[in-house]
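Q: My collaborator sent me two sequences in one message, no labels, and asked for predicted structures for both. Can we handle them in order? The first one she listed is below.
A: Yes, handling them in the order given. First sequence, followed by its structure tokens:
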Amino acid sequence: MTFYRNSFHHFFDDKILQATAYKRTILGFSVPSMFLLKLKFLRVLHVENSTINNFSMAISECIHLRHLILRNCVSVRLPPSIGKLLYLQTIDLRRTILESIVPESLWNIASLKHVYLSGGFYPTRNGKQKELRTFHLETSSFNYFRNKLPGSTLFPQCLRQLYLFANVIKEDPMPIVEKLPCLVVLSLSGYQGRTMSCSAQGFPRLQRLDLSVFYTEEWIIETGALPRLSFGSSLNMRKLPDGLGQLPSLKELVLKDPLISEDDITCKDLRGKGCKLR
């Protein structure tokens, strides 16, 4: 019987490593030091809390790789040759701090669907990805843009889900992300700017908006914005914006701030339209 999957925890022996050459899935957890061989048949590489000593040299040999997951790892540098992974669908580098920015060649992988980064993001207008659905980006990347989001044209226009951990952002991110034409889910965490504004015709397809660790004094929602929004959560505001009561599709709103009064005019308007508040 042939096994195509290996899992390692806390150790990595040279003899075991030699036996992995034909594996299609490798899982590694808390491995203090590991080396990758030429793994041309590998489909899934999932490593956490570990050190891969020769990652930048070995990864370009994994030409059939579909899912690359390196969480909370060290000494990771994405080489330009990562663009050779023509079948790559998922790259997950959450809590992994890269030694350099993400190479432009990553954005030329047409099959890429899900990207999770903790840093190193530098967008490009020349990306070829047409399948990208999920983009998860954490704080440190925004230092490249002087603590603000890059322009909307630098994000993949096919993006459907966007997760931003943005406690260093000083400028309102909404005028940027509201222009993404296919965006369905937006999760924004950490923004503490004074104001936030959604303009008319903004977020034409957005259905879910999650705001966490979120504090702002004023949120302006112009008429015509968020026409398809059906769910909103974690709104830490003392007074709800008037524009929420005008949203035609809003069905449920989760409020975390106990200071919002039951007599809030917008709360009454929403309940009157059948929106569930909790």
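Q: And the one she listed second?
A: Here it is, processed independently of the first:
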Amino acid sequence: MNTSLNNSDRYCPFSKEPCHRICIYANILENISLGLIAFDTEEKTVIFQNKTAINMFQTITPKDYKALSATLFPEKMENIQTGDIPSPKTLRYGGRLLGYSIYTVSNRYLWILISDITDKARLESIAEAANMMNNIGYIFFGIRHEISNPLNSLKMALSVLQKNINQYSSTDILEFLDRAQIDISRMEYLLKSLKSLNMFEKLHICNVDLPSFMRKFFSLVKNDFEKRNIKIKTIFSPEVKYARIDPGTLQQVMLNIMINAYDALKDSERPEIVVTMKKGE
């Protein structure tokens, strides 16, 4: 429905002509929660900026062509071609994260649709952090369990050796010490696994014995999978021996893959994970 305006100075937001009747669609666009800005690239003017867009850029004078174009087009506006598929862009402004897309109406006019995605981005960050904490929880549980085994074995061996030190021969004592050294080496590896969770740790590219690495890795996670009756089957080609890679990064990648597989098999009747390692062509 159109109604005559009392204010003769009102202009249509899409042209420079006086608007003698209220434009219903313009009023809708003026008050929606999506930010809208229309540029006239020939006359270098902003022909429309709704209330939401004005509130988003409070430090910029409304319809300030130069300031708005410099903010929204870090690249040159002339590089935007008519018919280009709108690609989402992001911009941090005034402590908020804005997402926007550019639509080319013609060689002359550009429409910018803007959304405040700060809360959405925050929720995604929280979800990502929660996922990371779950991953860390899995590996910490596995490491805790695996450390207890060599630690208990070491305590028992040293206790027996202490009680019988005068009765044992030097050969028997060396056997106990060798066993203790193996347990200590095992715990040392597990502690290095904890260190690899540090995101600020520098990469250490080296030759990694992949079969040995995989055997140690699966020993960390097997307990969680066994509780869910998930079988882990490994098929390692004898051709595969070494790879140049950062062990900590490889461990985190494998951990993510295994956790995703763990979750995917939640409702499976006969859950099984098959890990194949073969030489690439």
